[in-house]
Amino acid sequence: xxxxxxxxxxxxxxxxxxxxxxxxxxRDSKASQAIGYGKAAMIFHMARKRVGDEKFWAGLKHLxxxxxxxxxxxxxxxxxxxxxxxxxFFRQWVEKKGAPVLKLRDVKAxxxxxxxxxxxxxxxxxxxxxxxxPLRLETTGGRQEQKIISAGAxxxxxxxxxxxxxxxxxxxxxxxxxxxxxxxxxxxxxxLRGAKSLLVVASNNLDSRTRARAHSLLDALRQSRAKVIGExxxxxxxxxxxxxxYLGLPENRSLLPGLPASVEKLSDQKLVLNKETYEGAELSWxxxxxxxxxxxxxxxxxxxGSQAEVERVARKIPHYGKYSYLIFSDATNQVKxxxxxxESPTIWVFSSxxxxx
Length: 357
Hints:
By secondary structure, the protein is of the alpha+beta class. The chain has ten helices and 18 strands. It has helices at about 1-10, 30-50, 55-65, 75-80, 85-95, 190-195, 210-215, 215-220, 235-240, 310-315, and strands spanning about 100-110, 115-125, 130-140, 140-150, 155-160, 165-170, 200, 225-230, 245, 265, 270-275, 275-280, 285-290, 300-305, 325-330, 330-335, 345-350, 355. The strands form four sheets. A seven-stranded mixed beta sheet has the order 8-7-9-14-13-15-16. Helix 1 (about 1-10) packs across helix 2, helix 3 (about 55-65) crosses helix 4 (about 75-80) and helix 4 runs antiparallel to helix 5. The longest helix is centred in the first third of the chain and has 22 residues, at about 30-50. The radius of gyration is 24 Å and the shape is globular. The mean pLDDT is about 90.
């Protein structure tokens, strides 16, 4: 669930619509929800991890008993949960816009005598937070946890292990509120909703009526102002700096983004996904896909199926924001899922550690 919060924030919140939590009043969009609900939830989770369960729940209980039916602010939560220790913590998370971007860098492992020494750096991009960053080292003999205090752009660390290292993971349980790197984000419906420069490519295969009805997806995604062109007008230059939504399968399949390995076949009335075959005139499907040229952009493919159900399906798609693929039959969702991510700047896999006498 915390990973979903981080993915929603990264997909929906940009510099253009970012606000500090102290400025949040009410939810008026998916982006404001990701801040006012998601970021707030993560702040409470981080506070709980800092002070421990007993102190956290006792503080909330006392606050409820002593201030029931009264207005309270973030400072009251800080005092109730941890006193002065948490005031600066809450202040930085509530009053600052944005979130840090964390990455592992220059990680090395060397064997010295009978122990392994793992060294490296954590980079922090963004507003600059004082953080307790959890690291998990997986070794041939098990795993060990360590917290690194970071308050700047670059923080060095060293971990000593009795066993050879296999992997090093930064924030493996998604305990920190942070902005995920593009490589940590599978393409999802929310990525399209948050797109700032959407270009819609209508397939030559769509008749005028189905094409008109398929446009209802733009309204549902709050992208009604997006530019719409026919596939014949799409060029490599045009797609470079634009997010893409394909309405219908283009005749020119070279225009499509690369498909995940789990998609073995697709046509207007047939899709083979995860070894399962789905077909029929009433079949509609939506795939969020990696952009063909720009990893910081999004792409998606909507195959609308029958004319009668296009608008019903289109209105439902935004409600499945965290998913990468959706399959509908007679406007009823049959399958939904999210592509796995395989790379991350917060995961370091060791290959050949250096052995020193």
